[in-house]
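Exercise 7b. C-alpha cells:
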C-alpha cells in the first residue's frame, strides 16, 4: 500500500501552493484589508461548490473575530436573496475558474449599488479577476489530485488567503483575547478567556494568616483549619510578607529540623509568586504549571494582598 506516499505528495503540493501565494502577494492585499476595515456594512461572501464551502469557513472566521459577514449562495441570490445586498456592504467572491456565470447577477447588483468587489481568484486570466475591484491571486500550479481535477491545492490556497485577511484585520483592529472571549461565551474557549481569578479566589476570613513570630505549632493549626495548604503573612503596607506551604513543610521534615523551635519568620518564603485578582483564570493555571505550585496569592493593582487561589479552585471551575 502506498497510502503514506500519496499523503506526503499531497502535503508537498499543497504546501508549495501556499508558499506560492506569498511570492505573489501585492498591494491589492493591503487594499482589501483597508476596504473591509472601512466597511460600515457587512462582508458578503459567495462562491459555488468547493469555493462556497471555503467561503463559509471564511465567514465563520470573520464573525468570530468581530467582522460582520454572511454567506450568500449565488443560486439563492438569483431567486430573491439579492435583496440582502446593501450599498454599505462589501462583496467577496471566491472562484477557481474565475468564470462568473452564477455570480453575474451579484456582480451586476454590486455595480448598481456601488459595492466594492474583492475576488479570491484561482485564474488571473479570467472575467472575475478582471471585473473585480480588488483581485487577489490565489492561483496554483496544479492540484494535489493526480488528474489535476479535484479542487485541493486551489481550495487550500483560497482558504489560506481568507485566513490571512482575517488575521491581518484582527491585527489592524487590535482585537484582543478579551474581545475574542466576548464573542465566544460558551464552550472551552469562553471558559478560558472569560473566567477571572477574582471569581474563584479565597478572601477575608477564609485566608490562612499568621504573624512572623507565630510558632510552628500554631502555624500548623491555622494551615490545617483553613484547608488551603498554606499560611501567609501580610506586611504592614498590605503587601505579601511571605508564604509557607505544605510543600515547604515536607521539605522541613525531610531536612529533619527541629521544627517546633521555629517561627513563621524562619520558614516562610519571602516575595512569593502572585497574580492579579483581575487576571484570567487560565493565566493562574499557567503560572501554577510553570512553577510547579498549587497556591497563588492574589493581589490588587497596587500589589496589596487580596486573597489566594488554589489549584483545586481552578479544577472546580471546569477550566480543565
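Sequence design result:
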Amino acid at each position: 500500500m502506498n497510502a503514506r506516499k500519496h499523503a506526503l505528495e499531497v502535503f508537498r503540493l499543497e504546501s508549495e501552493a501556499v508558499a506560492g501565494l506569498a511570492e505573489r502577494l501585492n498591494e491589492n492585499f493591503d487594499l482589501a484589508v483597508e476596504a473591509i476595515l472601512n466597511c460600515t456594512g457587512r462582508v458578503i461572501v459567495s462562491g459555488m461548490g468547493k469555493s462556497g464551502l471555503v467561503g463559509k469557513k471564511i465567514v465563520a472566521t470573520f464573525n468570530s473575530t468581530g467582522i460582520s459577514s454572511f454567506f450568500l449562495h449565488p443560486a439563492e441570490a438569483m431567486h430573491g436573496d439579492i435583496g440582502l445586498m446593501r450599498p454599505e456592504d462589501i462583496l467577496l467572491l471566491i472562484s477557481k475558474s474565475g468564470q462568473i456565470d452564477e455570480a453575474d447577477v451579484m456582480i451586476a447588483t454590486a455595480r448598481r449599488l456601488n459595492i466594492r468587489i474583492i475576488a479570491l481568484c484561482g485564474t488571473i486570466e479570467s472575467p472575475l479577476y478582471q471585473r473585480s475591484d480588488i483581485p487577489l491571486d490565489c492561483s496554483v500550479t496544479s492540484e494535489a489530485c493526480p488528474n489535476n481535477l479535484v479542487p485541493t491545492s486551489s481550495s487550500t490556497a483560497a482558504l489560506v488567503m481568507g485566513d490571512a485577511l482575517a488575521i491581518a484585520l484582527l491585527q489592524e483592529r487590535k482585537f484582543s483575547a478579551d474581545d475574542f472571549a466576548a464573542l465566544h461565551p460558551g464552550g472551552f474557549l469562553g471558559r478560558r478567556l472569560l473566567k477571572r481569578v477574582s471569581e474563584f479566589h479565597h478572601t477575608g476570613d477564609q485566608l490562612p494568616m499568621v504573624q512572623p513570630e507565630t510558632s510552628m505549632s500554631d502555624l500548623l493549626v491555622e494551615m490545617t483549619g483553613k484547608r488551603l495548604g498554606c499560611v501567609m503573612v501580610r506586611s504592614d503596607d498590605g503587601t505579601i510578607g511571605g508564604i509557607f506551604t505544605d510543600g515547604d513543610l515536607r521539605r522541613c521534615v525531610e531536612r529533619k529540623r527541629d521544627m517546633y523551635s521555629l517561627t513563621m519568620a524562619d520558614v516562610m518564603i519571602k516575595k512569593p509568586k502572585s497574580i492579579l485578582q483581575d487576571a484570567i483564570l487560565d493565566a493562574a493555571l499557567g503560572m501554577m504549571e510553570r512553577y510547579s505550585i498549587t497556591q497563588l496569592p492574589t493581589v490588587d493593582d497596587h500589589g496589596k494582598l487580596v486573597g489566594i487561589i488554589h489549584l483545586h479552585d481552578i479544577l472546580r471551575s471546569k477550566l480543565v
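Instructor comment: Residues 3-24 form the longest helix (22 residues). The two ends are 40 Å apart (CA to CA).
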